[in-house]
Amino acid sequence: MNIEQMLAVLDADIVARLKTAVEIGKWPNGVALTQEQRETCMQAVIAWEHQNLSETERTGYIDKGKKQEGEVCEDDHHLHEPEFKPIRFI
Questions:
Q1: How far apart are CA 42 and CA 14, in angstroms?
Q2: Does residue 90 belong to any structural domain of this protein?
């Protein structure tokens, strides 16, 4: 079975079950996924989502936000934190 054939039989419900199997490392019947099965499931989920979902709905999407022209990122939260001191074990 090639990738096009596989994607043709997948639907949102099957993809959700594949994602759960990858997340917990088991099939719904409790049998552990092999490394190869986990990789194949991840590839199928990513390919299906790429074909069927908008970018913002896909697994792993990170909203990086937008800045207005001339806007500067101001990150001063570190100024209010105590100075980092490494833990010293005796």
A1: 12
A2: no
